[in-house]
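Example 4.3 (complexes with small molecules)
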Amino acid sequence: MKWFFSKYLFAGMIVVVSSIAARADVLPAPSRWTNQRGSVLEIWSITDGQVRGQFTNNASGFACQGIPYPVSGRSAGSAVMLVVTFAQCNSITRWRGQVGGNQLRANWNLFYIQPNGDLGNLPGADLFQRTN
Ligand code: BTN
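Answer. The structure with biotin bound is encoded below.
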């Protein structure tokens, strides 16, 4: 009898632990995020994984500051991919990262046109904190 109950208790614990582990933090919409450079990411909607929002670059050392640009991307589980075209700067940034609680940690690549016409690719990382 004791063996019977402990067997079911063990099985129940496995179910609880695995369901907690499987629960990914998903990018919420609407939500607002600010990164360590002071740039602001607004997520307006996510429909069938399709992300829509706005990004305002406030990072020193970069061009196109203080201008809101459309954001598009994909959200799947805790994984997020975002793209912004900085039209006035002839550049595009793509972020790929993960949501964890109130943080969005993402690596990025800034693709830009070099003076000689070649494509430049500047990599970096951003840590966004949820601010709303
Ligand atoms: C440009 O300088 O060509 C456009 C602005 C790029 C700003 C980048 S995007 C990745 C990184 N994170 C920020 O908040 N700003 C810079």
